[in-house]
Fold this sequence. Notes:
By secondary structure, chain A is mainly alpha-helical. Chain A is built from seven helices and five strands, in the order H-H-H-H-H-H-E-E-E-E-H-E.
Amino acid sequence: MDDSMGEQFDDSDLNITEEVAAPTTQDFGLDDINTSDTEALTASQVIELMESAWLNEKFSPEILPHKTEIVDCLLGQISYMEENLENLESNDFQKSLHQMETYRLRYLVTSYLRIRLEKIEMFNYEILKQEEVREEKNEESYLSAGELQFAKEYKENLEQHFDNVLSFWPGLPPDDWKKEYIKPNLHSFVFLKSKTEIEGVIIDDGNEEDGDLVDFKNGSQMIISYNSVSNLVKKGDVQLI
Amino acid sequence: MFGEKAVELVKEVNRNKDSLSPYNTDLIEQVNKEICGLIEQNMEDANASIAGSSNTAAYIPTVNVRHLSVQRNLRCLLSYHHNRVRCLRNMRWEFGSLLPPEIKSNLSSSEAAWFSSYSTSLAKYMRSIGDDGGVNLGADMKPPKSLYIEVRCLLDYGKHQLGDGTVILLKKNTRYYLPRTDCEELIRLEIFEHLIN
Amino acid sequence: MDPDVLEFLAEKQRVNIIPTINSNVIHLISGDVGPFRAGLPVQVPLWMAVNLKQQQKCKIQAPDWMDVDVLETIKDREKVSRNFIKMPSEHYMVEAKLLLSAAPDDIPRTDEIRTIIKDIWDMRMSKLRASVDSMMKESGSYAAVDNLTIMEINSIRPILPHALDQLYRLKKAARMHGSTQSQNTTTFNSRLTITPFKS
Lengths: 241, 197, 199
C-alpha cells in the first residue's frame, strides 16, 4: 500500500448525481467550534458538527475537548421538537417521521456522551492529571463541568474501594498503585479523512529520531498513528473515520 | 511458591469476563495472609540485620525476593478487584441501579458500596446534561431502526402503561408490536425479548 | 464498528422516492423535506425512504448507480485498476442492502445488482488483503487508503491497526534494547489491567 493507492474517479463516466456525495465532508469553515457562536449555525450544521465530534471521539484513543455547546444546542432542538410533537395526533403522518428523527439524534448525542464517560472511567487518573495541567496553564478544559465532577467522584470512589481492599495491610495501606495507572495508547493507529490540504505531517514510526514527512490532500484518506495527527483532529482539519 | 494463590484470583476473573462470580473471600484472605507473612519476615530480617550488623549482605537476596512477591501479590489483588469493578460498571448500564438479587449476593460489602456510589455519581451527571433537567444515557443505546418493533413477553407481567397513556396487559409468550421507546427498558429487564426478523 | 452503526451512518444518504400520498413540507431538525405530491419524485434521507416504504406510502427510485450497466462498468474498471477506484457512494454496500431488501419490487433486476455488487466487494477485498500484506512486509508506519469506503475500512479494523501497533512496539523495543540497560526491576508496578501501551 503506498501513496498512489487511490485513483481519481471520473464522475462524468457514470453520470453520478449530486445526491450521492456524502454531506459529512462538507466544510463549514468553522475551524474552532469551541469559540464559535453556535447560535449562528443552522440546526443541520449543528448536526454535522455533532456527527463529526461523535466519530472523532469514537475512534480517538484519548478524550477530546468537550463539545458542550453543540450537545446543548442539539438537545435543545430535540426537546423543542418533542414538545411540539405532543400536540400532534398519534396517527399524524408527519409525527412518526419527526419521532424517528428525534430518536436518531438522541442516539447520536447519547452515544457521544457514553463514549466519553467510558474514557473518563478507564483513563480516570490520566485524564484528571491532564486537566490539572491544563488548569495550571490556563488552557481550555477537555471535560465539561459535569464530566469533571463525575471524574473526581469516580476517582474518590475507586480509591475508597481499593483502600478497603488493602485495609488488611499492617500499618497504612500502600498507595503506590496510584502512581501506575491506565493510559490511552496514543500511538494506536487510526483511519482519517483530511478536510483540507496539510503539509509536512511528521510520522512517529518508532524507528529513527525524525520520522517521515507526509502531505495530506483535501479528501485523502490515511491510516496513521494517532499521535502524529492528534493536533489536527482537535483543530478539525482531519476527520477520524 | 509465593504468588500462586494471587494468580488464581486473576485467572478466576479472566474466566468470567462478563459475569460476576461470587466474591472469593477465602482465597483473598489467603493472599492477604501471605502478604502479611512476607512483610513480617522481612521486618524480622531487617531488625536482625540492624542488631547483628555484620552479615547484612547475606539477607539482601531473600528480602528482595519477598519484596517482589509482595508486589506481585498486590498487583494481582488489585487487578482482581479492578476487573470486578469494570464488570459491575457494565452491569449498572445493563440493569440500572437495582441489581438482580443473584448478582447482588456475589458482591463484597465494599463492592456494594462502590456500586451505589457509582450509581449516584452517574445519576447526578446525567441530570447535569443539557439545559433541560438532564438526559438518560441509559436510553437510546442502539441506533434506531424503526419506530415499532416486535417483541415477545417472557412472563405474565400484567398491566403496563405505554408512553401515550394506553394501558395494555402483558401476558407470557404473547407477541406485541410496540413503539421502540416503550420496549427498551422491558427488554433490558428481560421481560421482553426483541424478535428480529 | 457494529453493523447497525454502519447502517446508521449510511441512512442519512439521500434517495429519491415517489410518494403515493400528499403532504406539506416537513420541517425536520436536519432540514426541510418535501412537499410530497403523489407521483412526483422527491428527495428524502434513506431512513425516511425505508420507513415510508414500509408503510407503503412511496416507491423508491434506485440511485443512478444502482443499475446493472453502471455497476458492470465500475466492476470492469475495478478489475483493470491497480488501485481502488472511487465508488459512486461512500456507503454502497449498506445502501444496496437496505434498498434492495426494502424495495425489491421498485428496483429492476435486483438479483443481478446484488451479484455484481458482491463481485465488486470481493474484488476490492482481495486487493485490500494484498495491500495489507505488502504493508506489513514493508513494515510501513502509515499508508494512504484513498477511495476505501467506510465499510471496507471497517473490515480491516481492528486487525490492521492492531498489527501495526505490534510492529511499532517491536521496533521500539529493538531500539530500546540497543541503547539502554535492563529495566529497573524493583519499581512497584501494579498496572490494574493490561495496559494498551505505556509511554
